[in-house]
Amino acid sequence: MGATEEAFITPAIPMDFTYNYRIGLYMTRYLEGFKERKIMGSRCSGCRKIAVPPRKYCGVCNKIMDEFVELPQEGTLENFTVGHVVLEKGRLNPAENPYLLGLVRLDENASLLLARVEGLDPAEARPGMRVKAVWKDQVEGDYGDLDHFAPA
Amino acid sequence: MRNVAIVGIGYTPVFVSKRRDVCIPEMISEAVENAFKDSGLTPADIDAIIFGNMHTFEGVNLPHLWCADYIASLGKPVMRIATGGTTGMAALHAAYYHIVSGLHDVVMVVTYEKHSEGDSQVGLLGIITPEIMAMLALGIDVTGQSGMGAIGGGSAGGISYQASSYLAHSGAGIEHIDAIAAMERRNAAKNPYAHLKDPEATAEKIAQTPLVSYPIRFGHICPTSDGATVCILASEEKAAKLADRAAWVWAVSNCCSDATTGNLIEGIITDPAEQMPAVIASRQAYERAGIEDPKKEIDYVEIYNGFAHQTLMFLEKIGMCELGEAHKLLEKGELEMSGRLPVNASGGVVSTNSIGTSAMNRVTECALQIMGRAGEHQVEKEVHKALAHGWGGLMQYVTITILADKPKKP
What's the complex ipTM? Predict the structure, then answer.
């Protein structure tokens, strides 16, 4: 028996629910820092590396990171991608203009921050370029406060 | 430890975008029947069943139980494995553990995906939703433009960083990603179980496909396929009684690091192309298999490459060539079916991606090459030992399986 035309059912299940994820102690400290335009990290007492945003464990040393440090606002563009599509309401659409998304290594820091990079032609972007943090005019302790990075 | 052999392989007759004619259990049953035909075994020979597929993709939470009678499992132990992209190989490893432990002698591994019945976006969201937590933990503003770019720029979000980092460190160019994608689509044209086939594929043709997120183009990305793969494994004693041909498992290994966009053996974003789990897992596998120089001793490799640059990148990470050398081997034609180090003669994941099967097919394709049964895509050189690589999870989980043409000496 072969199906000659497509036969399927589309169940509609009337459910609407939301997940509420707690951000935890370390991320709270990071976002508290945003209210003063500060970028906070945590330092491992074993290997001395700094994680930004701060996190509880250094996986390499299996140690609890209990020292909070404020980081410089400048760093290097370690790596980047150029987005040509945007996700809008679950669909991928072409971006109005190609845009730069960078991985930024803040000075004195071991880990990378993912951030939008503005004020730089994507075609001109190169690993190793110097960049600095640009904040929103109004900061309120939200992820979006650290708006983007721009050439330093 | 006792030896374990692969004694039977069954694919669905095709891997395509939409199997409109069959429901999920019916499609899976085709591969089960083919594995029985291939091995000459019957359901009575099977002691236990391992079942693997991607969570969420079809919105079916307990597919292994729904399919119970279609996978010949009534009255038998069944275990489901879901580790993301590596699911197929993790499931095979579970079967290996069952047999090595002495608990069972013959175990059947069933893997599938029927992407067309779910919504890929919803499926990926099922992965991204917990990953959003990982993204938030890295300070990524998931609701703002950079976060949406990271998600929307694709699964390409993290992958494009990986690819651009790989290019920056290896000396390869985007033209090499185009070229490896073209090679694999040409290989796929010789594999009856491949999905995207193009016997005329060239780097120039791939280069005409649009950029999604630099340096990833549409032509570098795997499809979503409907299909199933079944593999039967047996202990050495049972294999001697039941099978007239086999591929032997010499080593399995796997390695995980911390979650998210990069590769995070340190729990923080480091270089997304670092992929330490691949380095660690392959070293462990070589040690377990007694392999001192993989470059000389491994004849054939199947790399899990949802994105085309990964073939080159992972060849380097697993020590099959030096860092920065893979694209040079590609230029010399050494990665072709006729080459010195043939890779992904099957066409790889970039050509066929029924995701539950994707890591499993790396192993079954190595097994077919070892047994000389790959047909039109059999490589020219003799294959005595082969390595299958799986990759996925939240971009940081790697599985390795090493197969050989004879049992390993104790």
Answer: 0.71
